[in-house]
Design goal:
2 copies of one chain form a homodimer. The first copy, chain A, has about 220 residues and is α/β, with parallel strands linked by helices. Chain A is about 35% helix and about 10% strand. A 5-stranded parallel beta sheet of chain A has the order 3-2-1-4-5, with helices on both faces. In chain A, helix 1 crosses helix 5 (about 165-175) and helix 5 (about 165-175) crosses helix 6. The interface between A and B is large, with 44 and 44 residues.
Chain lengths: ~220, ~220
C-alpha cells in the first residue's frame, strides 16, 4: 500500500515517517516550503531524512507554499512580523497561519489520491501546538470525515501517530524506531546551530532532557 | 460584517456574489487562477464583475494556484490531458482535480480569518458537478465542522446558496437579483466565443433555455 508522509524535517514528522516505514508499504514524502527564515535548513533536513530511508526522487516532493504570502497574516510567512520568542505562552502564537493545516492536509490528500495512496501520515502534535485550533484531535476527526466524503473512492485516511504524545514520548518512540534525530531540524530562528530559545527548540530540548538524553543537534550555546 | 466570496467568473459564483451583496456587509472577492486554457478570460470576467459591484483593489484578490501543477492529475491543470468534451457523462470527469475544493475552501477560510470575515460564499452547484464527490451537500456540512474546529474563533461559516439549485433556477435567481450575466464566463475551452459544447457550456445554455431566455454571451455557432 502506498502512503504519503508529510515531512517538515522536524522530529515529529520524522517519527511519523519511521512509523509509516515500520508499518510497511511504499512511502511518498511531501515537504511544504513556506520560504520562511529556516526554509533552506528544513529542506536540507527533508532531503537527508529521505536519503536515510531510501526514498528516491520519485518518492519525494517539495511544493512551494509561496502563495500563502498572498493571503498573509502570520510571522512564519510575513517577514514584517517577528517570530514569537517569548517562550511557551498560552494562546495563539504569532506564528499562526490561519487555517494552515487544512491547506496542508488538502494538498497531501490531493497528492495521495493522484498516487492512489490510502494513508496520509501527519506529524501534528498537540503539546507542540496547544494554541493552534487545527492541531486538536477533534479537528483531525472532522478532517477525516471531509476526506472520506471529498475523495473519489472515500478510502484515504489521515493518521496522526504522535498527536497525543508528549515530546518526551516522541523522543522515546523515535529511539525505539531508530530514527536519525541528528538529521532533523526544529528551530524556527537559526540555520546553523539551533537557537535553543524559540518555542520549537524549547519543546525539543525538553523532550530529550526528560529522557535523560542530549539533543544530537549542535546548539547555539555550545560555542562554534 | 465582512464576507469573502469565491468568484471564479462563472454564473454560479456570480449569483453567489449577488446574494452576498443583497444580504449586506463588506464583500471581499477571491479568484483562484489555475493557469488553465481559459485563465485569462476568467480573470477578465472576475475583474468585470468586481467592477460592476464596486469592489476596489483592496476588496479583490487573485491567488495563483500554479502549485497545483506540482501535484498533477487533472486535465484542468495538466496540458497533456484533453478536457472532456463528450457531453454530460456520469462519473468523475477528466477535469477532476483530486480534493480540489478542500484546497480552495481552506484558502478562502484562511483569507477570511485574516480579514476577520465571518462568512465565505461558495458557488458550488451539485447539478454542475454530479461526478465530483466534493460538491455534495454532505461534504460541505463536514467542511463546515472542520472550519468551526480549525479556526481561531470558530465562527466562520461556509455558505452555498446555489448548491441545490438547478441551472434553470440559478438563472432565474440571478435575473431576480439583476446580475450582469453578460460579464460572466463559463466555457472551459474557448476565450473569445463560448464553444457551446463543453459540459460547462451545455449546462449554462440549458439554464437559459429553460427560462425561455438566450445566453447574452456570444456563442461560437453564431459566427464572427
Amino acid at each position: 500500500m502506498r502512503k504519503v508522509v508529510l515531512l517538515s524535517g522536524g522530529m515529529d514528522s520524522l517519527v511519523c515517517l519511521a512509523e509509516a516505514h515500520a508499518a510497511g508499504g511504499e512511502i511518498y514524502a511531501l515537504h511544504l516550503d513556506y520560504g520562511q527564515k529556516t526554509s533552506v535548513r528544513e529542506t536540507a533536513a527533508f532531503g537527508a531524512i529521505c536519503d536515510h530511508y531510501g526514498l528516491d526522487a520519485g518518492h519525494r516532493k517539495i511544493v512551494s507554499m509561496a502563495f500563502l504570502r498572498q493571503i498573509g497574516g502570520s510571522s512564519l510567512t510575513d517577514d514584517a512580523m517577528a517570530v514569537n520568542q517569548a517562550g511557551l505562552k498560552p494562546g495563539i502564537p504569532s506564528s499562526y497561519v490561519p487555517f494552515r493545516n487544512s491547506i496542508i492536509l488538502s494538498l497531501a490528500v490531493s497528492w495521495a489520491e493522484t498516487l492512489d495512496a490510502k494513508e496520509v501520515y501527519v506529524g501534528a502534535n498537540f503539546e507542540d501546538s496547544p494554541g493552534y485550533p487545527d492541531c486538536r484531535p477533534e479537528y483531525y476527526e472532522a478532517m477525516n470525515r471531509v476526506v472520506a466524503l471529498g475523495t473519489r473512492d472515500g478510502d484515504i485516511r489521515l493518521l496522526t501517530p504522535v498527536l497525543r504524545l508528549h515530546k518526551k514520548d516522541v523522543v522515546a518512540r523515535g529511539r525505539a524506531l531508530g530514527v536519525p534525530f541528528e538529521k532533523s531540524w526544529s528551530c524556527y530562528v537559526a540555520n546553523d546551530r539551533a537557537c535553543g530559545k524559540c518555542d520549537s527548540c524549547l519543546l525539543r530540548l525538553k523532550g530529550f532532557q526528560e529522557n535523560g538524553e542530549v539533543d544530537p543537534l549542535p546548539q547555539h550555546d555550545q560555542g562554534v
